[in-house]
Hints:
By secondary structure, the protein is an alpha/beta fold.
Amino acid sequence: MTIDKKVLAYIVVGMLTAILSCSKSPCEGGKDNLIVETVLTADEQSRLTPAQVIQSLREGNVRFCANDLTARDHSKQIREAARSQFPKAVIVSCLDSRIPVEDIFDKGIGDIFVARVAGNVINEDILGSLEYGCAVAGAKVVVVLGHENCGAIKAGIDNVRTGNITSLVVKIRRAVDQAAAAEINPAPKSKDFIHAVCLANVQISLTDIHDNSPILKTLEEQGKISIVGALYDINTGQVKFLDRDQ
Ligand SMILES: [Zn+2]
């Protein structure tokens, strides 16, 4: 009888140990005991406001900076998203390899459209993509995302002329001229000047969207979408929304 009690005690201790160790390991399903398996639905997208989407992007960036990204079951999400998509935002980002756009907002499959072009400039094809994202697919926010220490911006400052880079640089030169006119430490290689050109370049892209897309402009005036600018800091991972965080 005494032996049986000891055996029973070992079994109980063993079970408790297993339960406790499982609660701290991936067998429970990662952080917060949650792995996202679903994707945005049409109903969920339709209920979102532009302000809620911006807040979602902000909160995702906070998690990214804290190295606390959401765990996702990509296999299940791929199957969920195969038939349709209802993303909440469209991001226009630079080509830069240091900016994994979905990651920096802690978003995954089906969450956001991403249009990438060096220098996050606006052209007809990007405008068509933005109009598709918002007017056809229902996204609620357009973000023009510039970034510090941008190679395309530096090429613009250096007025690089070669191949098809030339037409890109011509677009960016408008921001160079604008920053120089504002006399923000116009020494071409200064950190302040590069920052000023990055900022001006995002503002010019926002103006280009408003000036050349009556569809997006009207959606914004109706309160159905927001069109905002943001800057990504490649030193910290932080995204600052212009006119909101500065
Ligand atoms: Zn760049």
